[in-house]
Structures
1.
Amino acid sequence: MSLNIKPSADRVVVQAAAAETKTASGIYVPETAQEKPQKGTVVAVGPGKYADLSGTLIPMSVKVGDEILYGKYAGTEVTVDGKEYLIMRESDIYAVFN
């Protein structure tokens, strides 16, 4: 997937996973009751952040294609080419799936 934006510093662009439409027991959840997803796939990564004291570049620990968990209210929602994405700082990422 080619994205036309490049995040700056320690930010990542994430495509959120689809919200669950059915419970484990098979009950369909209406759109108004669906929870905001907290899982997604990284589609673009910034270069990293410069350390305050030394000025050296601290590289990012996530890469394009990583599946991640993030906070419920993390990031800023943006629309690019008709698709919705989240832009968030690397520190908003809680975990990376192996």
2.
Amino acid sequence: MTAAAPSTTDDQRFADLHQVLEQGAMRKAARMLNALQPAEIAHLLESQPPKERELVWGLVDAEYDGEILTYLNDDVREQLISQMDAGELVAAVGGLDTDDLADLIQDLPVTITSEVLKSLDQQRRERLQTALAFPEDSAGGLMNTDTVTVRPEVTLDVVMRYLRRLKDGLPDITDNLIVVNREGYYLGVLYLTDLLTHDPEETVAEAMTLAVQAIPATWGAREVATRFEQHDLVTAPVVDENGQLLGRITVDDVMDVIREEAEHQFLGQAGLSETEDMFAPVLLSARRRALWLGVNLLTAFLAAWVIGRFEDTIQQVVALAVLMPVVASMGGIAGTQTLTLAIRGLAIGQLSSKNARWLLWKELAVAAINSVVWAVVVAAVAAYWFGDPQIALVIGVAITINLLAAALAGALLPMALERFGIDPALAGGVILTTVTDVVGFVAFLGLATLFLV
């Protein structure tokens, strides 16, 4: 889970809390703080510099610690966990739902993990091991193993009496009961609305629906989010490769997937991680960002090297130095538009090898139209500025070439990077910039060498 941004009303409450903290009224601050929802407290913690964060964390009631930790990003969670002793951590995470515990236990020290496992009963330990058997970004990693199942042959009246006995044991966000046979294989779901409105003497088999397809545990998180979106699901059963029920996924977990994906796409374009703490130590942040700065420096040197190959041409026609950034900039913008569209298509499952060729031709056609339009505009400006129609022709052709190359790179790069196991959101922008700079400079300066010198 991740903490959502607060609303305007929440902003006012946070401002009031900050004011109370500044005044040193710790008891009042503690009351105000613990009246917030765990996700709101997590957002408040992420919004504080380290020292203030420690102060706020110390005011939180211990009973909320575990749930709050599940909403924090990885960096902040790691910082707070390092400040807690073994007893506090075991007590904090012991009462969590299985899916939340599975996410959190991987960030705990090994000694604490063993203590947590010892504190669980046999059933919870087995459920936790089931959840941990799958990658975090898979359906199996997202699912909660706490489910309510019924058999198809029992009557609805029996089901109603069974639910009354459960009382508070009914899992959160329960909109249906999962129907399984005696061997635990998934058959369908019984919606609570059908349970309440059908004749109590009917059997589950008569009232259940077969329309809800189970999600394989091996599906990726993106596929799960797409299924929820397309079918307007609130919950969905998860099965193994044989169709045996393993657990269920709820819409709140899917919302976390969508939010994290959006943050990843947004921050990835700047070479940042969505798990990074905004108030992380200076040296840690500097070290993390140094890698992409270094990569960018190498690509900048490559572009500079290309320019250096045409040093004599630039010295003879000074106007070229003035106009070079125009060519590179136009290609960069056009390429970024196509790249962003392609990355989004991959993220939501709309782009694949089956339709990539169609997208490529479409983007090349768009680039061809725009290149002609803007080549004419730039050529006219250059001709008026420098009074040289040859320079105007050269820059017009160069822009056309670079926009077409940018569209080609923007459409192909995401799929190529994903095939090699490289995140397109992180690496796509850097590579695209290199392509558009190099192609733009070679086209512009190369044509100028041929026709102007």
3.
Amino acid sequence: MVEMSREEFEAAVAEGLDQVPRELTRLMDNVVVLVEDDAPADDPELLGLYEGVPLTERGEAWAAGSLPDRITVYRHPTLAICDSVDDVAEEVAVTVVHEIAHHFGIDDDRLHELGWD
């Protein structure tokens, strides 16, 4: 397990976001990226979670009063599976891309096919 402060982990998440091509981030709509220490109790090993309505499923009435979609990256589960700060940076980058893909309507099966496990 790697020791990393919340501030250091948040910086790693920001760096992971910076690695996403601008062409994609410009297409993201109404999304907030958050860091939480612990994953939900029913899935304590979860590294990240997308909550919202994917772009591919939004209709005309979607925007009326809609809260932002949420991408949450979980610090403790990520640190638990990593052996170094470099591992954390890599795992966070993969998690960020994985959850952004869900925002674009790409499901886990397709991500697996593309090698983004």
4.
Amino acid sequence: MSLAAAGRVEVTHRRFLAIALPATLAQMTTPLLGLVATAAVGRLGDAVLLGAVAVGALLFDFLFWVFGSLRMGTAGLTAQALGRGDALEVRATLARALLLCGAIGLVIIVLHVPVGALAFRLMGTSEAVTAAAAVYFSIRVFCAPFAIGNFALLGWLVGIARTDVGLGLQVFIAAINAVLTLLLVLHWDMGIAGAALANALAELAGTVAGLLVARRLIGPAWRLPLATVLDRARLVETIGVNGDIMIRTGLLMLVLMFFTAQGARADDVTLAANAVLYNMVMVTAFFLDGFSTAAEQICGQAVGARDREGFRRSVGLVLFWGFGFAVPATLALLLGGGAVIDALTSNPAVREVARAYLPLAALTPVMGVTAFAYDGIYAGSTWSRDMRNLMLGAAVMFFAAWWIGRPFGNTGLWCAYLAFMAGRGVLQALRVPALIRRTFA
């Protein structure tokens, strides 16, 4: 696809899946970064080091997930520029996103000592684990500009409908990380420092490869006037869109952390059972998020091209494939979830509790499908302010439902989570008609 393509947007099942499926696979490679480090350090036989990697990886997951929202904002702005046929702005969008990523990454590096100390204190880890995790954190933190920059690069590739290239880059990062981790941790005996260094070098390699790929896709006209990159109005738009989505993501994480904390307060068995169920549900979330990513590109391009009919068809396509996956996924969890639980844990008590709450957890895909679909639609359309405000409304619904359901314990907690997922989709769906009228007026 030309970076200057414009006019009516192609909205077909084939094109939708061509974007969605590579995006799904690309996102499934992300957990491999922490998994490889955990596996390698686990071979050393030191529980302290293994715990330190888990704590350090969790902290980076939190930091990078919040700023990972830059992918959504970049995808929406890029897709709209592509829809307008503005090849210069397609390139400038990436440059501005990378500038923002670099600035955020540098701030994280500068503040990493007090941030790390506060995080470890809140986690309540032992002195030995904290000391080892601090080593991991102090090394891996220097990859922050590159790790966040890779989100922007992936978002740009989504915006130009090249999720296949994005998948290739994610696989490249995961492969580099795996090879370096095995060499540094097991062969050269660098321990936890080796695991952190491997991850940092893999992110750096991914950024370099991503920039080379972007230059090749852009072609000879890759140079940009500095005045275009630093255009005040565009910079404000970039910061505003991404800032709103960051706040939205922070609210989402608040709900998920509260959900986990309430399970922990019940007892260890309930916490473990909820973790098993949530990990099962997250597999379906990768696919729904892939459909959301396709929506970012197709809907964003339709907005840029001022193709109202194409936008409406895009919304219908996203919902069609979302429900087409979510309903069978819920049925599969209901029918086969017990076997998955048995495979994930051998603890009889955890198995029993997980099976008791499986019917509620299995409803998550079908209750949350509209939330995923409209996340992509809103991000692609850069309706970021409404996205932020409606997430706040859904979070309020969650806490209200949890308060009402407190007497029912973990059942009430799962019902509150389902209400949150459904509420997100309903609130966004109700707001869409007004936003379409405003956008295509």
